[in-house]
């Protein structure tokens, strides 16, 4: 291996690592706020890239129908919940609140899909559609069991993963897609050539980390999310609604996933089931951060990216084995280092 | 009431019995949904051209979708055999499903015409008496490529293959044939279809400076290593396997694929074949019929087209020896298929008791990607 290859591999590692950072942040965010180990995080990536690809072809993506269907289910669940609580006069308002945003978003997407808008608008449509998906998934699959054990939530997350992969296959077909690049620029940098698209990946990744830091550090909603992550019952006592926090966390996670998908869509071919492995690598990075520390997870994501890139070079047949084996020593170290106490469920 | 239902069921038995006596029943199980749908859908399109009658006998088709799933393929086969009492099975679309079905078809003494390509479907021949396939064996597809390498002076080659049975099936004859022709295989790298990047493997391959790179993957995943080679400015030849030869591959790969070489059925370039090429005429006929109805032609559509043509050739002979729906008919049908010579669209098939694939070297040509389209690069000698 000469220095050129070393640098090229490092560049590849950095691009992938930047995506894993975003996904690791989303994973930690959801785990912290809702205690859900959110396996389907990667599905938002696939839905993001594939929805954009479908819009590119001037067709209505299946995501539109999924959003509508989930909104209807969510509205029915909401109505039933209020009925059981005996406050049936609140039902119309609650149903309208649940239905309105998803229906408006999918309506806009339905109308705009055949218009062949330029890339920027299509990206915006995709982001709106997939971000709406997040809170709906939370409302339908997780909120009714929000107070059960971590294991139950994990099982539900696995179920959601399979459901979303199956639906993605139905909506987008088995063949892969590549979306057009945001920028065709090629910038020579010594021996390296940096593509415009990978600069987009770095910039968006850094911007998002900054944005999240601001959100959690400075805004009321961000602080509320942190409070729920820190102590659910305590947060509830001071008047923070855990379900609102969950909804917000899922919206953010879906947004992050969708953006990651749109960012890597032009770099690689995305298939209906591509999301799982990408999400899993984000999860592995989050594990390095103990599912709690954002900076450590970001370091973990870079570590995963680097390991992946260099092991593809040396041992391509065992690449994923190497990457996921990485978790074991980290877990060992974490469990030796941390003081254990049983969390009351 | 009881009498009435009894009479009705008697009537049902009689009608179904007469139907079974008169009609030829063909069972079809293909993957029209699921990951292999890009194979199954054009195959189903090909079924649109099915004959209504053969030699004066009505033909009835029972079509099931196996959803690309092995268990479902097995269930479909059982249903076709026990419920519909089919005389012949066409399908499935993929090799793993075909391997799961061969024993059932053999046990029920029902001829099966597979549209999937794996060689083990028809080998070893003594265990595959009832099984035939409409595709070239791997060594013919890889052989066409290795011949092209020899002709263009390739001395060293590296391969990058998907980490799955498809990749394994191609790499084995690739190793044997390159060794035979004195071409040095520098390395065989692996990747997964869901990988986000093949850059590292490509860097490793390029640092060894091979004259050519062989990319082994089915469908659109073949585009990723090819694109990475293009991005890194690789100047040598890039070869793709026959599994890459579909229009989705061209769409995903775009301009990065220019100049790439693919070993595939000549049906894709029927118009460019020299006059007298064995399957030229039928390929043109298929292309015209298919493209007027469904858009760009597909080799998978041609598999179904050829399977139907094989049935049309074999059935008249078998009808002389037995009535449809009986084991005698199925045995006669099997014998007729085993000795059939069919000029198909995908290739010319010469079945024999020792070869249940029947495709010779003329079944695969070398195509080059020029301006996002297939161009005939080289073809085998023909009589």
Automatic annotation (TrEMBL), chain A:
Q: Which organism is it from?
A: Geomobilimonas luticola
Q: Which UniProt keywords apply?
A: Amino-acid transport, Cell membrane, Membrane, Transmembrane, Transmembrane helix, Transport
**What subcellular locations does the record give?**
Cell membrane
Note whether Cell membrane occurs among the keywords: yes
Q: What is this protein called?
A: Branched-chain amino acid ABC transporter permease
- Has keyword Mitochondrion? no
Q: Which residues cross the membrane?
A: 20-42, 62-83, 95-113, 119-138, 150-174, 199-216, 237-263, 283-305, 317-336
Can you tell me which residues the record assigns to a coiled coil? none
Q: Which family does it belong to?
A: Belongs to the binding-protein-dependent transport system permease family. LivHM subfamily.
Q: Provide the topology term for how it sits in the membrane.
A: Multi-pass membrane protein
From TrEMBL, chain B:
Q: Which CDD domains does this chain map to?
A: PBP1_ABC_RPA1789-like
Enumerate the UniProt keywords alphabetically.
Signal
Q: What is this protein called?
A: ABC transporter substrate-binding protein
Matching entries from InterPro entries are given as: BCAA_transport, Leu-bd, Peripla_BP_I
Residues annotated as signal peptide: 1-22
Out of the domains of life, which is the source?
A: Bacteria
State one Pfam family annotation: Peripla_BP_6
| Keyword set includes Signal | yes
